[in-house]
Amino acid sequence: MAAQGKASTNPALVLRSTGSCGDRDVLPAAAALCAWPLEFHPGIAQPQTMDLDALLLDHFGTTDLATLNDDGLAAGLERLLVAFGTESDPGRRFGLWALLHGLGHAPDPAVAFEGRREREAAENYARLIGRAETKDD
């Protein structure tokens, strides 16, 4: 991973959690991102950090998705999908897509990403998360 503040041709996006990583039964793939550096997009000059708890709080009003009823979860997913659809930064867009994927609501990479690199990164991510979840079973 690139050092903070230094340009790199292979930077990373890191999703981190300031507290717990949420309910692993509700969000197994997204919770795994809390400490996972994801190297995916060589076009980004520096590592970026997205806070999983802040994302959950912003879009769902809580960091514990197990406390939401169906309407609250649906409303949060709608806000997250809108944020994904309007985000222009490739790293943040990928992070939002990864969270949507962890929640089971990510659009197909072929539809979600126009660029080949982003699309392939999303496909690789989904494949790797699928393997990790298979090993956990």
User: Order of strands side by side in the largest beta sheet?
Assistant: 2-1-3
**Number of strand elements:** 3
Overall, the morphology is globular
Q: What count of helical segments does DSSP give?
A: 6
Gyration radius, in Å: 14 Å
- Reading the helices and strands in chain order gives EHEEHHHHH
The rounded distance between the terminal residues' Cα atoms is 30 Å
Estimate the helix proportion, in percent.
40-55%
What's the story with the biggest beta sheet? 3 strands, mixed
Low-confidence parts: 1-41
Beta content comes to: 5-15%
Structural class per helix/strand content? mainly alpha
pLDDT average, as an integer?
74
Task: Give the secondary structure arrangement, pairings included.
Layout: E1 12-16, H1 28-32, E2 37-39, E3 48-51, H2 52-60, H3 70-86, H4 90-102, H5 109-112, H6 116-136
Parallel strand pairs: 1-3
Antiparallel strand pairs: 1-2
Structure explained in plain terms:
The protein has 137 residues and is mainly alpha-helical. It has one domain. It contains 6 helices and 3 strands, in the order E-H-E-E-H-H-H-H-H. The protein has helices spanning 28-32, 52-60, 70-86, 90-102, 109-112, 116-136, and strands spanning 12-16, 37-39, 48-51. Helix 3 (70-86) packs antiparallel against helix 4 (90-102). The longest helix is centred in the C-terminal third of the chain and has 21 residues, at 116-136. The model is unreliable at 1-41 (pLDDT under 50).
